[in-house]
């Protein structure tokens, strides 16, 4: 009788609550207004012949490499950052290897690592979700073959210093270190200029967040060109679809749109943090396009999410994440979305009676 591998059969399930998302979408860290209008114009210009052809990735990779100021041989366009994670696991992990993550973090790291048969090593974040550098180094062994770090981290919005990341890469020379910069545009700091200093360092970016292209599934993985040659062997030549490849150059060209959107998100983030501080709600200062806040108990978080939904605002309960009991994550958008959010937030806090004396992490 046919049966899946044990590693797959025992995988934890990840089911994002995507159904019934009616309201202002502040729950999945998406761009809340959508992509550049120029991208829609490019979509309308696609022909029947364009869609009938197999996608050609290399010309767009050359353009993206020029945008990032790196060599085309140092990058690979991927079907979102998820595929980049998957490809690194397929390239470097054997059954029985160790793969390390710091929790709480993005759930798909562990799923792809475990699917490859690796033994997952979860290192708890330090107090206030700060990065546990010494504990990470202590947990690195001869069997460590992959380490994944989101920077900024999801769901906390916390960051890791460049030198700490390099220190980890050097402490684990036989492991692929993935620095996932999905929220780079909202943070502004990157490991990209340092990627040639250590051959086991990989940097991933996405066009799902600031660029508003989550539905097109397009990301990029950057690393040492010799290592990237190995990653390409595990990758389909047609992994990124024609529509995404057609739209990406247009999206990159409209940097005025990206800068304006990012500027407004950062302003909204500051407004939300100020409102939470004033209301006495615990939160973690964020370098991403979201803020993690603690409402109270797991039940309180669920009630908060439901009351916000009734007011037309979708936010994400993160109570199931390590150390996040009673926590809710709220995505930020432009000013008009922040206006709606803050009104609903105040009404919900007053209704639930959870606002207390000022207490800020």
Polypeptide structure, described:
The structure is a single chain. The protein is an alpha/beta fold. The protein folds into two domains: 6-30 and 256-352, Aspartate Aminotransferase, domain 1, CATH 3.90.1150.10; 37-253, Aspartate Aminotransferase, domain 2 (3-Layer(aba) Sandwich), CATH 3.40.640.10. It has 14 helices and 13 strands. Helix 12 runs parallel beside helix 14 (335-352). The longest helix has 25 residues, at 255-279. It is globular and about 55 Å long. It starts with 5 loop residues before the first helix and ends in a 9-residue tail after the last helix.
Question: Secondary structure elements and their pairing?
Answer:
Elements: H1 6-9, E1 24-25, H2 37-44, H3 48-52, H4 58-68, E2 75-78, H5 80-92, E3 98-103, H6 107-115, E4 119-124, H7 133-139, E5 144-150, H8 162-171, E6 176-180, H9 184-187, E7 201-206, E8 219-223, H10 225-233, H11 242-253, H12 255-279, E9 282-284, E10 290-294, H13 298-310, E11 313-314, E12 316-317, E13 327-331, H14 335-352
Parallel strand pairs: 1-11, 3-4, 3-5, 5-6, 6-7
Antiparallel strand pairs: 2-8, 7-8, 9-10, 10-13, 12-13
Structure keywords:
Aspartate Aminotransferase, domain 1; 14 helices; four-stranded antiparallel β-sheet; Aspartate Aminotransferase, domain 2; 361 residues; 2 domains; alpha/beta
């Amino acid at each position: 009788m046919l049966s899946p591998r044990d590693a797959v059969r025992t995988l934890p399930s990840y089911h994002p609550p995507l159904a019934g998302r009616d309201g202002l979408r502040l729950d999945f860290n998406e761009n809340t207004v959508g992509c550049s209008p120029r991208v829609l114009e490019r979509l309308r210009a696609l022909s029947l012949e364009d869609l009938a052809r197999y996608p050609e990735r290399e010309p767009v990779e050359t353009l993206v490499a020029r945008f990032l100021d790196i060599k085309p041989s140092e990058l690979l366009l991927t079907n979102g950052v998820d595929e980049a994670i998957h490809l690194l696991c397929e390239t470097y992990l054997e059954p029985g290897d160790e793969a390390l993550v710091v929790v709480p973090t993005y759930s798909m790291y562990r799923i792809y690592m475990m699917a490859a048969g690796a033994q997952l090593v979860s290192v708890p974040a330090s107090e206030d979700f700060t990065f546990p550098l010494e504990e990470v180094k202590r947990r690195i062994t001869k069997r460590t073959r992959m380490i994944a770090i989101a920077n900024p981290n999801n769901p906390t919005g916390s960051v890791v210093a460049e030198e700490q990341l390099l220190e980890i890469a050097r402490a684990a020379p036989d492991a692929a270190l993935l620095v996932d910069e999905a929220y780079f545009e909202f943070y502004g700091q990157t490991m990209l200029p340092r990627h040639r200093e250590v051959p086991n360092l990989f940097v991933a970016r996405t066009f799902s967040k600031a660029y508003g292209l989550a539905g097109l599934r397009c990301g990029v993985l950057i690393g040492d060109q010799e290592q990237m040659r190995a990653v390409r062997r595990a990758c389909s030549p047609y992994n990124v679809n024609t529509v995404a490849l057609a739209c990406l150059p247009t999206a990159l060209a409209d940097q005025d749109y990206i800068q304006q959107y990012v500027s407004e998100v950062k302003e909204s983030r500051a407004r939300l943090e100020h409102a939470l501080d004033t209301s006495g709600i615990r939160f973690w200062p964020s370098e991403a396009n979201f803020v993690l806040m603690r409402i109270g108990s797991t039940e309180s978080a669920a009630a908060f999410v439901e009351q916000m939904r009734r007011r037309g605002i979708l936010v994400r309960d993160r109570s199931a994440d390590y150390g996040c009991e009673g926590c809710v994550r709220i995505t930020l958008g432009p000013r008009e979305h922040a206006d709606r959010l803050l009104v609903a937030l105040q009404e919900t806090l007053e209704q639930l009676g959870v606002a207390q004396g000022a207490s800020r992490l």
